[in-house]
Amino acid sequence: MMSLLLAIALSCVFVTSQVAAEESEVVSYAGFQVWKIKPNSEEERQFILDIKDSYELELWNERRMTRDPIDFIIPPQSQTKLKSKLAERKISYVVVISDLQTAIDNQKTNINKTTSDSKAAYNMDWISYHRLNNIYAFLTYLNTTYPKLVQLINIGSSYEKRPLYVIRISNSSSPGTRPAIWIDGGIHAREWISPAVATYIIQQLVEVPANAKLLSNVDWYIMPVVNPDGYEFTHTTNRMWRKTRSVSSTSSCRGVDPNRNFGFKWGGLGASTNPCQDTYRGTKAFSEPETLATSNFIKGKSSQIKLYLTLHSYGQYALIPYGYDVVYPPDYNDLLALANNAASKFVKYTYTVGNSADLLYAASGGSDDWAKSIGIKYSYTFELPDRGTNAFTLPASEILPVCQDFFPALDVFATKVATCCGAFTTTTTKPLTTRTTRPTTTTKRTTTKCPCTCG
After folding, report:
1. How many beta carbons lie within 10 A of that of residue 143, not counting itself?
2. Burial code of 240-253, b = ≥16 C-beta within 10 A, e = fewer?
């Protein structure tokens, strides 16, 4: 018996050591490609999804319409066989990223370089992606420099004990008494453009006098990095990491998808029970310290916060609850009208506007659904650019154009929040899903589970 216990103990030590070693090794995506595969029928679509399961491919982005393309990351060892299988069925595809590691390296070229202005007060710009320490130093600087305008709030700690920061921006003599807008970024670690846009919004609201009108009647709560552990891990070890970094008691696979971990319709469609999946829901709602701290803070301000906005990538979508299934809230048309108005301000990038589950796929446990469920009238997920050409490796040269294109929409949101939000207008007609480029009416479709990992 003793020898058996010793063998088990040594086995556990070996497995633990092996996992620790794997976690410390930098993941290379050399030779990996991103393919955009386009089915022409439901049969072809199912064939593609069957291939995904057979080859255990990672699906990056899928839309609900039969003929819409599906994005996959294809490992080198599978590329020849997959080309043959697609050719046999005459299914077309495009290689949008020919070498994923090269795209990653190009994206990281300017990280943490100091700004060209040697007199700059902080090492923060929007021509490169920044590590967490730069982002937090920037928030600290604003808190110290603009004490009458900015308050930096530590709302808790991540699994790896990094602080979770929210910045409040208000010129009110009694902050917390006016209607407010909440914005968060970095729920999914690899979506680097999200914290970049969130920090740009902060800088514009605090340091640009021309934007003072956005503070006239509205307070702002902005959390640029909800998932700091995962975000740092994408910089140091695995660029394509999505989840938190918590340790499971039942698996060697780490992390939970924060956007499947919020406590409204938790554990439903589109959320995995497998800890090794990117859409793993966790052991229970709010199992993660990041989602728990964020939700507790928002609940404490829920009577003040009138609009919830969470930034993700990629795809260029303005998504409206609910996402757990093709279900429309009673005031869906109110949300749709405001989202269309905001999207009309975009010039460089066109966004598709509509219900999350109807446009893309069902995903339960999402933060936007949860925010809507606690009484925040206007709740949105914005999937930032692009549409898949660069996917999660959007070049640093695109950061400023994305930020500048997005910022004017905030005026639309601030104007609405300043005057709302009493009793909602009940939908009396069938809700519409619209595209800002070509309005369409969609019919309600049966929702199926989808392992997509965008959003």
Report:
1. 18
2. bbbbbbbebeeeee
Report pTM.
0.88
Q: With bands split at pLDDT 50, 70 and 90, how would you rate the model's confidence at 416? A: very high
Say whether pLDDT at 74 is over 80.
yes
| Separation CA 257–CA 288 (nearest Å) | 9
DSSP string, 17-68: HHHHHHHHSPPP-TT-EEEEEE-SSHHHHHHHHHHHHHHTPEEEEE-SSTTS
Query: Per-residue pLDDT tens for 26-39?
Result: 999 999 999 999 99
Annotated catalytic residues are 383
Of 66, 71, 74, 73, the residue nearest 45 (C-alpha): 66
184 forms beta bridges with: 223, 310
CB atoms within 10 A of CB 127: 12
Element (H, E) at 380: strand 378-384
Q: Which tokens is 219 given?
A: 């307070």
**What is the per-residue pLDDT for 58?**
92
Asked if the model's pLDDT at residue 21 lies above 90, the reply is: no
* Percent of the chain that is helix, strand, coil (3-state, to 5): 35, 15, 45
